# Entry
Amino acid sequence: MADSTMPQQAGPGHDLPDLDLTGADWRPGSQGVGDVQIAFVEGFVAMRNGRRPGAPSVVFGPAEWRAFVANAREGEFDLT
# Structure
């Protein structure tokens, strides 16, 4: 399935623009390992499941993305 303007998800109270992800340059999120893909679009960061590119993408603003990455590095989302 081609990249599209699939619905985007964000946390409550977030005001996101309607980003066109059709031509987004999707890249592996972690050194080519795993299913997470990210794309930088119009100052925002979109994240999706690479195995389901037609599913909705999660979109982060710059500050949200920095916080997400910092927390991931600290192991906040480690479920093992």
Q: What stands out?
A: The CA atoms of residues 7 and 24 lie 14 Å apart. Residues 62-73 form the longest helix (12 residues).
